[in-house]
Amino acid sequence: MGPAVPELSERARSVFRVVVESYLRSGVPVGSRTISQLSGLNLSPASIRNVMQDLEEAGLLAAPHISAGRLPTETGLRLFVDGMMQADEPNEQERAAIERQIGQTGPIEDALAAASAVLSGLSACAGLVLVPKQEPILRQFAFVPLSREQALAVLVGADGTVENRVVALPPGTDPSALVEAANYISSELAGLTLSQAQARLIAEIGLGRAQLDRVSGDLVQRGLAVWSTDGADRPVLIVRGQANLIDQSAAEDLERVRLLLDELEGKEEISRLLEGARAGSATKIFIGSENKLFALSGSSIIAAPYRAREGRVVGVVGVIGPTRLNYARVVPMVDFTAHALSRLMA
Asked: Are 304 and 277 in contact (CB under 8 A)?
């Protein structure tokens, strides 16, 4: 790791800041002559080159090829983001665009998709929204035999939605056991979420009050469990604006872009990463190979949690793009969008 901000001299901090900010604007390595023209440091190009060499030896800058230009390493970007960045709050037009898009009447899912789209447009990255996992409330349940080994579990939710899942049957399951198990769920567990129903069933079996034989009890547990497993395997992630990831610099590094687009297709991995942002109260920034998911594509995610009425974190909104994205502008934008969603859901 490179030195902490206080360990850099004032001259080194000034040069480093100019290199990072110029690189994030242009996407190209920054040379000493450019710094001398931009920074107002009153330093000669030779003095700036010496400072840049020191920063390179500290692991904060790197030279991608033989030219005199430098760009920040991932360690340097982390140092800049955590200790030196001066955030630019969204302007009035950006705030209005975010609030207008997500404030339109309609289902909450539409607002979440709109949040992903407007963030993508304003940040020139791909917008991400991790949607709250809506656990259905039981109203009615049935098992439909498919074969000796499988049955179709049919769940009717309190809101009228119908969902189906295939359940593996214990060997020798009698059709009457399917009917008994379904009747038990519909009569005894209606009005509960699936997790509540599972907890109630375990408690009832433990107290000997379930009034189910072993086979029917096993079927009830299988029928309830298949939804929790399925939900964990297929998280709900909205992605908008992938085309923004193919910019002019990306044309020179198509393999990196291909890897990033592949990562976005593997939504389960991205969702698990975003779940890590649910635990905190503030916006989180994942830079490049700090997370093994982006070790090859060199991507960054900025993500912030949003909350429901009671203050409980229910989802995450953010953007994904190259590590050279404009953190000072995008971080406050993501934070503002998260707060706007929280107000909408309050």
From this structure: yes
Find the radius of gyration of the CA atoms of the chain.
Answer: 27
Q: Is 60 exceeded by the pLDDT of residue 97?
A: yes
Q: Produce one character per residue of 19-39: b if its CB has 16 or more CB atoms within 10 Å, e if not.
A: bbbbbbeebebbbbebbbeeb
Q: For residue 45, which of 29, 61, 33 has the smallest C-alpha distance?
A: 33
Supply the pLDDT for residue 1. 47
The reported pTM is 0.71
The answer to whether the beta carbons of residues 345 and 314 sit under 8 Å apart is yes
* Count of residues making up the chain: 346
Task: Give the pLDDT confidence of 49-76 residue by residue, as tens digits.
Answer: 999 999 999 999 998 876 668 999 999 9
> What's the gap between Cα 3 and its chain centre?
29
pLDDT in tens, 16-39: 999 999 999 888 889 888 888 776
Q: How many Cβ atoms sit within 10 Å of the Cβ of residue 207?
A: 8
CA distances in angstroms from 268 to 132, 271, 304, listed in the order given: 14, 5, 18
Which residues share a beta bridge with 286? 301
The backbone torsions φ and ψ at residue 33, rounded to the nearest 5 degrees and listed phi first, read -65, -40
Asked if residues 179 and 139 have their Cβ atoms less than 8 Å apart, the reply is: no
Q: Please give the DSSP secondary-structure letter assigned to residue 30.
A: B
**CA gap 49, 70 in Å, rounded:** 10
DSSP-derived 3-state class of residue 105:
coil
Q: Can you tell me the distance from the alpha carbon of 86 to that of 327, in angstroms, rounded to the nearest whole number?
A: 9
Query: What one-character-per-residue DSSP string does 208-239 give?
Result: T-S---HHHHHHHHHHHHHHHHHHHHS--EEE
Please give the pLDDT value at position 302: 95
Distance CA 265, CA 287 (A): 19
**321: closest CA among 71, 125, 34, 131?**
125
H or E element in which residue 304 lies: strand 299-307
C-alpha to C-alpha distance for 259 and 255, rounded to whole angstroms: 6
